[in-house]
Amino acid sequence: MNITILPASWTPYLLSVLRFVTGLTLLQHGTGKLLHFPVGVVPPTFALNSWPGYAGVIELICGILLVLGLLTRPAAFLASGMTAVAYFMVHAPQGFYPILNKGELAVVYCFVFLYICAAGPGPWSVDAKMKK
Hints:
This protein is mainly alpha-helical. The protein is built from six helices and no strands. The longest helix has 24 residues, at 11-34. The model has no long low-confidence stretch (mean pLDDT 95).
């Protein structure tokens, strides 16, 4: 029995939506750290010349690129690596299970960005427009 909820023809468009939404959520991490928007995201001990500061730069730049769908594969690869590093440096030392070490978001980001790196930007992107 084959039950289809969404037609397969939607797949490339939903890839574009996935890229856009995850790019926006990554971008807010970068704007929070570097631009102090939204207010309250930055811890009081934040320093630009630190691992969180470097992550903020990557989050800001890759977030913008992913939202636009510009240089999507390299941006997604860099974001995937950055979130893997974040998981292993910040979360994993606090315990094995992501639910307990509060690393679920870093793990999900890592694999979503890795998927986007492999799958590409989808049709609703600057990359797709430039390819035409």
